[in-house]
Each structure stands twice: as structure tokens, then as C-alpha cells.
Design goal:
Heat Shock Protein 90, Helix Hairpins, Beta-Lactamase, single chain, 3 domains, alpha+beta, 13 strands, five-stranded antiparallel β-sheet
């Protein structure tokens, strides 16, 4: 591309230079010749008064000697006598005498000018002025050389400028091409510095935007795979507890081994979903938050609201069966006010199951837990607390994929993602029961009357449910 643009500049500039300089050179040569002939006519005219005053040869010789120091002036008298150095042919002299008009012509070595002069008794004398060839072309060669060098400089300069501009365009295009190839090869952190013409800068910005979007989509996809895999741990935990409850019967060890194998496979899926993205890509994608305020998960509709109290009561009822088998004290308390939030039922279910499931997985048997739903002026607070050993580093526990208890570390992150999607947040505190207290604050929906398809109907009464279950 650079060679093509340089060749175009060379041809275009050369054509312009030739079209401009050739007429200028011819005009300059004509101008120099015209100036030399005008000087010759003036020198010849200077001798005319001397002929009008006196036609004697001695007087004319003094005039020619005074006017002519280069032997270019000559006077042809009517009797054929010549004063000075004559170079014109007799035919030219005779024509000037006959026509009584100035005669010019090229001769060997230069150019001749003949001026007839009318004397008394109808006689005619002729004044001859010779202009050497060097005078006719004085300075023309030097001027032509200067103009040629100037034309060559202009052509060379235009080629260099075109090459620099082409190099800038080619460099920007090459960087964009290399970045595209790198992105296609899986380097998600590759970006380009927008340079070059406005069109290529716009293309570079569009490429960076596309790369950011692709990286974000891949990160979101991996998060979704990890979250869905983590949700499968809830029924898997129930199966594991049920298998332990069965006791030593035929096939129980095989069932327990299968459950452990399935749990290991889920952990592998979660880890594989996170590892392909580089640290930089993950941090860039997570920089905008797991789910920014006003951002929906795939399939979410913002015109749907979910009642936290009803759904939490339903999930606690499910987990209470397992709590009874392990001798855990399970309590639930909910406000009698509406608790609508802009979350899908599946997302809120995943939050409750993740938090309660962590209690079963990371606390000893017979360690009780409590779930409550509270409402403030702008939010709904879901609280899950237990009587287990607690969380040593609450701040680190909220980081996605970080865990000190041997788990995948996604349970609290699922709650945090849901909370941040409603402009809320998650806090990990110390519970009065002795273990961990997780508070999930969810932004209150603007219209509390709209619920998710009417499936969870709001009940205007305060509910306090306490179950004491022992093995």
C-alpha cells in the first residue's frame, strides 16, 4: 500500500511539474531573446542621428568606435562602403534598402538586425546590429537547471510526504489486523491504541468496544455456568443428607460414592468456568459489578417483582426437613409488610438456597440457624444466621471464588450479585447465635402491588414460625 501511494504521488506531482515548468522554460527563453533584440534595436537607433547629421565616412567611423566596443555595429553606406564589422549578407542589406523597413534574421553565430536610414537625394543607408547567440540565451540554462532541481525537489518531497502518510495508515491498519488476529486466537486482553486517519481511529475504538463486549459476554457466560452449577449443589446436599439418613443398608455406600463423585464433578465445572479468563479480563469485567444496578440477567423482565417473605418462607420450609434430620433448630420470621424486589423467582431462590445451604455444609450437625425478612423504607433485608464457627475473614469471603472452607466460594457471591442488581449490598457480621450473620439488603420495588405472576400472594399478617426439631 505504501508503494502504491508513493507511486501515485510520484506520477501526479511529475505531471503537474512538467505541465507547469515546460511552458515556463519556453517563456523564459523567449523573454531573454526578446530582451536581447530590444537592446540591439536601441543600439542601432543610437547611430541613426549620426547619419542624419553627417554621412562622411570619417565622421561615421568615430561614431561607430564610440558606440560599438564589441564589434557588433556596422553602417552600410549608399555607395557600398561599410563602416564597422559587417556580418549580414548582401541579400539582407538589399532587401532593407529596397523595402525601407527593418529586417531581422538568424545567421551563423547569432541574430542580425538591419535598420534602413533615409538620407538626402533619396539615398538609403543601413545600420546593422549583430547579437551573438550567447546573448540570446544568456541565463537560460542556469534558470532551466534551477527549475529542474526545484521540480525534482517538489516531486521527491511529495513522494516522501505520501510515504509518511501511507506509513501512518499502514501502521494503524497493521496494528488493527494484528489485534484482530490476537483476539481471534483467544487473547482477550488485547486492545489497540486508536491512531491514523479518523476512519481508522473510529475502527480502533469500535474494535476496543467489541473486545470489551466479547470479554464481558464470556465472563458473564462463565459466571452463569458457575452459578448454575452451584445451584445444583442444593439438591445434591439434600441427597447427601438423605443418604446419610438411610443408614447402613444395601447400596448405601454406592449411593454415597456417587453423590461425592457428582459433587466433585460440579466443583470441576465451576473451576473450569472461571479459569479460562485471565485475571485482567476478569477484573475488567467485574469492574462494573456482578450485576450493575438496572442490569438484568438473561431472561429477566424488570416489570416483574418477587415477594421476599413468601419465597423465603417456602425455601425455609424445604430446608426444615433436612434440619430436622440433623437435629438443627430452625426458625423463620418475616415482616407483615409487602416485600417486593425486582428479582426473578429463580434468582431469589438461588440466594436463599446458597445461604442456607452454606449453613448445612460448613457448620456441624445440631448447629441451629435462623432466617428472617425485614423491611426498611427503601429496602428489604434477608438475614441468615447460624450457630456455627462463623467466618474468620468476612471481607475476603465476599470475593468471588475465594473460600477458606474448601468450597467453591460462590455462595456469598451469588447473594452479592443479586443484591447489587437491585442497588443493594451484602454484609457479613457476627451472629448472636455465635456463628455468622449474613444480611442481604435488596432494593425495594417501586410498585409493591405487582408480584411475580401472582404465584406468591402477599399476606398481611406477621408470621413467626419456630420449629424445634431433634433427632
Amino acid at each position: 500500500m505504501r508503494a502504491t501511494l508513493a507511486m501515485v504521488a510520484l506520477v501526479a506531482t511529475s505531471m503537474v511539474a512538467v505541465a507547469f515548468l515546460v511552458p515556463l522554460a519556453l517563456l523564459l527563453r523567449t523573454q531573454v531573446k526578446t530582451q536581447a533584440t530590444v537592446v540591439a534595436e536601441q543600439r542601432a537607433a543610437a547611430a541613426v542621428p549620426a547619419l542624419a547629421f553627417s554621412a562622411r565616412p570619417t565622421d561615421l567611423e568615430r561614431v561607430v568606435a564610440r558606440l560599438d566596443t564589441t564589434e557588433r555595429l556596422a553602417i552600410h553606406l549608399p555607395d557600398g562602403q561599410v563602416i564597422g564589422t559587417a556580418r549580414a549578407s548582401s541579400a539582407m542589406v538589399d532587401r532593407a534598402v529596397r523595402d525601407r523597413e527593418p529586417v531581422t534574421g538568424d545567421i551563423l553565430g547569432g541574430w542580425e538586425y538591419l535598420q534602413p536610414v533615409l538620407l538626402d537625394q533619396d539615398r538609403v543607408a543601413v545600420v546593422e546590429e549583430f547579437v551573438p547567440q550567447a546573448e540570446l540565451s544568456r541565463g537560460v540554462a542556469r534558470a532551466w537547471t534551477v527549475m529542474s532541481l526545484l521540480a525534482a525537489s517538489l516531486v521527491l518531497g511529495s513522494v516522501l510526504v505520501a510515504d509518511r502518510l501511507a506509513a501512518r495508515v499502514v501502521r494503524a491498519s497493521r496494528r488493527l489486523s494484528e489485534a484482530s488476529a490476537a483476539l481471534g486466537a483467544g487473547e482477550l486482553d488485547v486492545r489497540v491504541e486508536p491512531t491514523g486517519p479518523p476512519e481508522l481511529r473510529a475502527a480502533g475504538l469500535a474494535f476496543n468496544s467489541m473486545a470489551d463486549h466479547i470479554t464481558q459476554l464470556l465472563a458473564t457466560e462463565r459466571e452463569l455456568v458457575a452459578d448454575l452449577s452451584h445451584r445444583l449443589r442444593t439438591p445434591l446436599t439434600a441427597l447427601q443428607l438423605a443418604a446419610e439418613r438411610i443408614g447402613p443398608v444395601q447400596g448405601a455406600p454406592r449411593m454415597t460414592a456417587a453423590i461425592h463423585h457428582l459433587e466433585s464433578e460440579l466443583d470441576s465445572i465451576i473451576l473450569a468456568a472461571r479459569t479460562p479468563l485471565s485475571t485482567r479480563s476478569m477484573s475488567a469485567d467485574r469492574g462494573s459489578g456482578p450485576l450493575e444496578a438496572g442490569t438484568a440477567r438473561p431472561g429477566q423482565r424488570f416489570n416483574e417483582a418477587c415477594q421476599v417473605s413468601d419465597l423465603a418462607r417456602h425455601r425455609v420450609s424445604f430446608w426444615s426437613v433436612l434440619a430436622e434430620q440433623q437435629g438443627r433448630l430452625c426458625t423463620f420470621e418475616a415482616t407483615d409488610e409487602p416485600t417486593p424486589v425486582r428479582l426473578r423467582e429463580d434468582d431469589l431462590t438461588a440466594v436463599v438456597d446458597a445461604l442456607v445451604g452454606n449453613v448445612f455444609r460448613h457448620t456441624p450437625q445440631r448447629a441451629g440457624f435462623a432466617v428472617s425478612v425485614q423491611r426498611t423504607a427503601q429496602s428489604v433485608v434477608l438475614v441468615v444466621e447460624d450457630a456455627g464457627p462463623g467466618i474468620e475473614d468476612p471481607a475476603n469471603a465476599l470475593s468471588r471464588g475465594v473460600s477458606t472452607g474448601g468450597s467453591t466460594g460462590l455462595g456469598l457471591d451469588i447473594a452479592r450479585s443479586a443484591a447489587e442488581s437491585t442497588r443493594g449490598h451484602v454484609r457479613v457480621l457476627r451472629s448472636e447465635l455465635g456463628g455468622a450473620r449474613v444480611e442481604v439488603e435488596l432494593g425495594l420495588a417501586s410498585d409493591p402491588r405487582r408480584t411475580l405472576g401472582g404465584r406468591w400472594r402477599h399476606r398481611h399478617r406477621r408470621a413467626a414460625e419456630t420449629r424445634r426439631l431433634s433427632q
